[in-house]
Amino acid sequence: MSRKRTLDDHRVHATEREQAPREHLYLVLDNIRSLANVGGIFRLADGFGVRKIFLCGITPSPPRPEIAKISLGAEDTVEYESLADPAKAVWLLHDQGVPVICLEQTDRSASIFETTFPRPLALVLGHETEGVDEKVLHLSDGEVEIPMFGSKHSHNVTTAAGITLGEIRRQWSSASGYGFPGGQ
Amino acid sequence: MSRKRTLDDHRVHATEREQAPREHLYLVLDNIRSLANVGGIFRLADGFGVRKIFLCGITPSPPRPEIAKISLGAEDTVEYESLADPAKAVWLLHDQGVPVICLEQTDRSASIFETTFPRPLALVLGHETEGVDEKVLHLSDGEVEIPMFGSKHSHNVTTAAGITLGEIRRQWSSASGYGFPGGQ
Fold first, then answer.
1. CATH number at residue A64
2. Distance CA B31, CA B41 (A)
3. Cβ contacts (< 8 Å) between A182 and chain B: which residues?
4. Which residues from chain B sit within 8 angstroms of residue A37, using beta carbons?
5. Nearest neighbour of A44 by CB, restricted to B7, B159, B170
6. Nearest by CB to B145, which of A104, A143, A183?
7. What are the chain B neighbours of A5 within 8 Å (beta carbons)?
8. Which of A52, A129, B33, B122 could form a cystine bridge with A79, CB 3.0-4.6 A?
9. Number of domains in chain B
10. How far is B158 from chain A (nearest CA, A)?
């Protein structure tokens, strides 16, 4: 007999999760070019209970079939807003008292594994090759990076977002004793 | 002036990292169908210093332009071996004393954030929709899962691999005091 969780098990958990309040966790997509990355980040945001995504600059917005194919429709479950200027997202978040941290390798960026993430929090993800906009870097409250162990300089932006959101959620769960509704 | 790290900075770090020994960390790709996922996992494996990838069953092998486009050529820096039967990868790893853990949602899977990962370790990643092969599940030493907080049941396999490898590397680094060569 299979030990894998059934679709019915998943449905029960998904219903519980949909009724739970979303975390005070936000993403700012600063000129993400690729539809596949935007779709991937929506799926990821749903999986980590992100409250809202700001789609800034050239970042494409739903509805687009190329986004929906990768997001598996997560743009229907995660709130989003399009803004021409990524700096405006930082201003809006700061106005609500939300610290803004950029995922970027700079002269002061700290490892995500050596950073204590504040709660609430907004994480900025930058352009696939250019990274986070300089203006946004200067407006934000700090930078974090993922330690690299190989020949490449960076991870794909969607994967990097996943690694970072995982660490944020790990810290918040262990700090609050907040349970894992999809776990044991 | 920009605070972003320059390409020259990256080159110095990459040279240091290439001279460092790879970790005793292995991936088993059990019937991964998509060329994009295989490419993405190669890039990820390079970034986390994975020693070897076993490409099993229907998993496509390099050289393939569709893999190289996503891996950014990481198949040149990470060792790999193709095996028709994924169970053989488990036997080979067990022969070398390497515990094998599957990333799969089962009736006994523990959250990756509540698991102490052994070192050395091999992580099995399963088919995009079917998950890990039943035979491999029964041969392996346990299952881990990523806690889910939204309406979807799972993450994309490449993203899920990144989240899990991040947590493994975090634990190993904090346990050993092993530094982050790409960080501060």
1. 3.40.1280.10
2. 13
3. 145, 147-149
4. none
5. B159
6. A183
7. 105-107, 109
8. A52
9. 1
10. 7
To the nearest whole angstrom, how far is the Cα of A31 from the nearest Cα of chain B? 17
Q: Is B121 strand, coil or helix?
A: strand
Q: What is the CA radius of gyration of chain B?
A: 16
Residue B154 falls within a domain, yes or no?
yes
Q: In this structure, which amino acid lies at residue A159?
A: T
- In chain A, which residues have their Cβ closer than 8 Å to the Cβ of B40? 156, 159
In a domain, B54, yes or no: yes
Reported in sequence order, the residue ranges of B50-130 that DSSP labels E, i.e. its strands, are 52-56, 79-83, 100-103, 110-111, 121-125
| Residue B90 domain-assigned (yes or no) | yes
The mean pLDDT of A103-128, rounded to a whole number, is 97
Min Cα distance B22 → chain A (Å) is: 8
- Spatial neighbors of A178 by CB under 8 A, at least 6 apart, are A172
> What is the model's pLDDT at position B2?
81
What is the H or E stretch that residue B177 is in? none
Helix (H, G, I), strand (E, B) or coil at A116: coil
Q: What is the CB neighbour count within 10 angstroms for residue A81?
A: 13
Q: What is the ipTM of this complex?
A: 0.92
SS3 A143: strand
Per the domain annotation, does B89 fall within a domain? yes
Task: Find the mean pLDDT for residues B160-164.
Answer: 98
pLDDT digits (tens, 9 = 90+) for A55-72: 999 999 999 999 999 999
The pLDDT tens digits of the residues spanning A4-39 come to: 887 777 766 777 776 677 889 999 999 999 999 999
Range of the structural domain that residue B100 is part of: 20-175
CA dist B151 and A73 (Å) reads 10
ω into residue B63 within 30 of 0, thus cis? yes
Provide the β-strand partners of residue A131: A127
